[in-house]
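Async update (no meeting this week)

Hi team, since we skipped the sync, here's where things stand on the single-chain job. The sequence we agreed to prioritize is pasted below, unchanged from the tracker. I ran it this morning and attached the output directly underneath so nobody has to dig for it. Comments welcome in thread, and please keep replies under the output.
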Amino acid sequence: RLDLSGLEARAADPQGLVDYVEKLFIGRPLNTETRTHLAEAASIYANDPADVAKTILQVLAAAPEFAIQN
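Output:
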């Protein structure tokens, strides 16, 4: 089982959560469009931190910045 507590703890602050996943998973700045999509996704489920965490990971995994370049 994946421990999402670090993301869940930041779920109430969508921009702070985006900053956190940006540093944790990407290691460089996300483009503005991706940041906006992530923050909007977090806001949709604001009442449920677990859903926020799962949604952020799903949206991030689909982001161009997350793709592996060879």
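Quick observations from my side:
Residues 13 and 42 are 9 Å apart (CA to CA).
The two ends are 30 Å apart (CA to CA).
Reply here if anything looks off.
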